[in-house]
Amino acid sequence: MKKYICISLIVLAAVSCRKGDLFEQPPFSLETSTKMAKEIVDGAPDYFGHVKHDKVTNLAQGVSLLDLSYLNKNGYAMQLYMYKVIVGAATLAVSTPATDQKTAVLSDQAAVLNESSTVLGAVNGDAFSASDKLPLGICYRGGNALKTTFSDDKGGFFATLADGTVLIGEQSDYSTYRRSLVNALGTRKRILQDGYPVQVANDKAAARTFVAVSADRMTAWLGVVDGVYFYYSNGITCADLAAVLRAAGASDAALLESGAQTTLVRRDDLGEKLFPVCNTPSDNGIEQPAVNGLAIIQN
Known about the structure:
disordered N terminus, five-stranded antiparallel beta sheet, alpha+beta
């Protein structure tokens, strides 16, 4: 009998110690500290599970960068960086490598473009062919046509037009707008069209780079969602990203080259590097070469 009493006391003591060692779990909350994050979280309540951190940095008049760390509806850690650009207050331009290069990392492309303009930030652009290192879509920079054909039938394009508006179009729209293109680059999958999500086959969570525009084509969003790092960010499906961008106010949205290419840089005049990478690229955090990028230019 004494043996059983001793065992019971040991078990109770062990349980008591384990309970004492447990950390109190913070309550899940969708509360945000910025208006930009609140609009997104409130507009996509079925996607967000918990907001860990949100911060908005105003880089110039009409240009802001959202840093949003959260758990999705399934409890997975996520990290979103997203620029919001009021067209007219700033300009969206295509960045390219130096003239003696076919590809270059985005931070270097931004530095090249900064020699003639004040670059505030950028995301990576189109996919490219491994054989000739040419973009798969069209490419216009400052009104100059660098590539006027599509190399596959899977993507469309993003463009700034001569009338000052921005556009996400399909390949079939190119002939309509080609004479009005100022800056343009190829996009990959369309995920939002006229305010409605576009169904994507085999839609799995992954690192994504995206661009989106408002219905009046006077506001643009461009950014990244990181992937492959379990405790940091686990990637996002196209359907969930469409919901997030629609909540932000977008009517149309498309992916740019994603996965290991997914990169976002921001100007930092006081840092060691003028255009440090904000996100964590999914190839061990290493910035990958890109054929072009979409940059924000201060007017």
